[in-house]
Amino acid sequence: MMAFWWPLLVLAFAYAICRFLLMLIPSNVPSIDVDASDVLDDGNQTRENSFIYVPSRRQGDKVQCYEPATMKYLGYYPALKPDEVKERVVLASKAQKTWAQSSFKQRRQFLRILLKYIIEHQDLICEISSRDTGKTMVDASLGEIMTTCEKITWLLSEGEKWLKPEYRSCGRSMIHKTAKVEFHPLGVIGAIVSWNYPFHNIFNPMLAAVFSGNSIVIKVSEHASWSGCFYVRIIQAALAAVGAPENLVEVITGFAETGEALVSSVDKIIFVGSPGVGRMIMRNAADTLIPVTLELGGKDAFIVCEDVDVPHVAQIAVRGALQSSGQNCAGAERFYVHKDVYPAFVAEVVKIVKSITAGPPLLGKYDMGAICMQEHSEKLQSLVNDALDKGAEIAGRGSVGNIAEGAVDQYFPPTVIINVNHTMKLMQEEAFGPIMPIMKFSSDEEAVELANDSKYGLGCAVFSGSQHRAKVIASQIHTGVAAVNDFASTYMCQSLPFGGVKESGFGRFAGIEGLRACCLVKSVVEDRWWPFIKTKIPKPIQYPISENGFKFQESLVEALYGLNMLDRLRALVDVLKMLSEQNTSKGNKRTD
């Protein structure tokens, strides 16, 4: 029964939060009109004649778009050629030069307009995401709407603070100076983003780039081009409302050659995708030596100690595994459960999973949607088969609802696998699907060792009745993010950076680090009491350097940095003495 009510409660909570945020928006924020007439569904997902099989995403110079849940054809977009990509970047560069002079007040107004539109059009945004990627409306609300609203409100609250000059200490030798770090826009940011969160994956890099004074060109996945080309209309309408230049934000469509052209044209690249493509991005970026941020997925460990509330943690575990309708993004993919609660935990998880039904998400009666990519269900089944061949067992599966024959391959029921070990591909390769492999452990040390036995290092979650114990375990796991007694909560704290290590990539987006990563970080030193006190090269080391020049430097170093106060005072006396002698000598020369 709880499995039925849980999604409704989450959706109601998300709606209440968004309505509360709407009340916080100043009344003078204008509304924008975004034409959605061509993306509104003209039927429902039960009509048999709406199922049209599309054999390939690519057809010549077109990106074919269709609904994964139904195989309904949505249309096509152009696969841009390299020259066309470079033209878009040139236009974005011209727009950026104007936008770089914009005030933070103008940038905040842009964010408020976006926030107002998002809150007032949640159903439209979520429906488009659902149609293009197969996820449910609840998953879209959690992963698309809430995360984006959280990022906008954080930027409104703190964005300007972290982009203002930051003053630093000057050290002992530069006490007469002031030192600061300035954050200037880089120029044109390029982003190549994945399909699993089509709305947030566009807004996430765009918000940081535009708020820090850049322009951005975003290459959306060929698996989510239809939604991406609508979402950019929202951004462009909001920019127009604040008087921003045209072409400041562009979304482009295409395949590998389109992305390669973008990498070679921009001032920084942000990539969200697979390790293999990430390596190609790095090789291409090396030609122009631009900075790169890579988020390359993960194989997150979910650790359950014996002192937990099993039903509570089991619910979180299933949500973590099936995040975004089984289209994981930093999803839990490896479950390590203490042997003392292993049977109870497996039983609870199986009970929940068996209550889950996958089906066309917009019908509103299914807990899980479709798999976005064609033939991905075959990969998932091959991972399961490999595990079964090596001794694993299926402990339980969900079900698939009444779907059309042409869309059968787009669904994979949630599956619980037990008796797994690290010789199985399922425990080593990123599955990106609704599979829960559960393995026993006997000690905290073993749990840490198992969690670290992965080529990925994005995130982890640790659950224990002792918060201290959970923190100690999490601190030993080599990942970029960690959640204690929760899952994926780090991403909802948008003040925190997000990213991984090892084959999960490097660099960070979100948080202060992600915002400043869109900037040229410039160190600036100036005179504290100009023009009264200026830097003057001491006489002993002016050209031509005097015979005691090195002795002077040696004494100066000890006077500034010596560990013993008496030695420092003695060295200071030597420095002053040499300066006095130099001045006396020069005075005598003038007399002669």
Task: Produce a short descriptive summary.
This protein has 592 residues and is of the alpha/beta class. Helix content is 43%, strand content 18%.
Describe this structure in words.
- This protein is α/β, with parallel strands linked by helices and 592 residues long.
- It has 18 helices and 23 strands.
- The strands form six sheets. A seven-stranded mixed β-sheet has the order 14-16-17-12-11-19-20, sandwiched between helices.
- The chain is globular and about 100 Å long.
- InterPro entries: Ald_DH/histidinol_DH (IPR016161), Ald_DH_C (IPR016163), Ald_DH_CS_CYS (IPR016160), Ald_DH_CS_GLU (IPR029510), Ald_DH_N (IPR016162), Aldehyde_DH_dom (IPR015590).
- GO terms for molecular function: oxidoreductase activity, acting on the aldehyde or oxo group of donors, NAD or NADP as acceptor.
